[in-house]
Write a structure and sequence with these properties.
With about 240 residues, the chain is mostly helical. Helix content is about 75%, strand content about 0%.
């Protein structure tokens, strides 16, 4: 008999039915999948009451992926957003480090091929980064993002964008003081965003300090506006309206 020929399989099926009685096959499948073990997930699915159409396409798709991408896709499927962010950010950072250490060929044909390859890589990197930033905003993972992109040199621009996104989140929640603090942490300072946060927070000392900084950084050709333009650029005019 089949059971005698494969006692381990028979025992596993008994154990699976016992566990399913305490939970559900769907939860067991998700738990197995969450271990990133596709063989275990497939075994659970085969010994369960799950329809093949419910799990086979997913497992086949996952089998074709590289390990880090597969882990990310599993986390997204299970809605484990912090783990998903960590796995996707790791892919992004590994590609960045590889790009920094990549040797450039001196042969013209190799250069032309490299231009096309680099363009494709840049597109993939941009998509990964946009997904990371969107995940931080949607699932309140900015602090995790700052932890992951901790290098102030390699990931200076990414850190600026994360802080800017966090500041805008605080603004939407009317946490103006927190938003101001975050905008002031960006490098360079997001003057327009920080001025808006300072205005809503009523922090006029920082507001006018930022306005002076903005004026100092204004291109020389724009530093002598006409009277009408001068009124438009006057922060007092913007806040309290035109003088009478």
């Amino acid at each position: 008999p089949a059971d005698q020929a494969d006692p381990a399989r028979s025992e596993a099926q008994v154990d699976l039915k016992f566990l399913a009685g305490m939970s559900s096959y769907a939860l067991l499948f998700d738990a197995a999948l969450g271990l990133y073990d596709l063989e275990l997930a497939a075994a659970v699915a085969r010994g369960s009451q799950l329809l093949p159409a419910a799990y086979r396409p997913l497992l086949r798709r996952l089998e074709k992926m590289e390990d880090r991408q597969r882990r990310y896709e599993v986390d997204v499927y299970l809605k484990r957003w912090e783990a998903a962010l960590r796995n996707l950010a790791t892919q992004f950072m590994e590609a960045r480090y590889a790009e920094d250490t990549k040797e450039v060929s001196k042969e013209e044909n190799a250069k032309q091929e490299e231009v096309k390859e680099t363009a494709d890589e840049d597109s993939g990197q941009t998509q990964k980064w946009n997904t990371c930033l969107d995940m931080m905003a949607r699932h309140d993972l900015h602090k995790v993002g700052l932890e992951l992109f901790s290098s102030f040199t390699t990931f200076a621009e990414e850190r600026r964008l994360i802080l800017s996104s966090l500041g805008k989140k605080y603004m939407s929640e009317q946490k103006y003081s927190e938003a101001l603090s975050i905008f002031m942490m960006t490098t360079p300072i997001g003057i327009e965003d920080a001025m808006e946060a300072a205005q809503f927070d009523g922090n006029w000392r920082i507001f006018f300090s930022l306005w002076k900084q903005k004026e100092r950084e204004r291109p020389p050709s724009l530093k002598e506006p006409s009277d009408d333009e001068n009124d438009d650029d006057d922060p007092v005019h913007d806040i309290f309206g035109p003088s009478t």
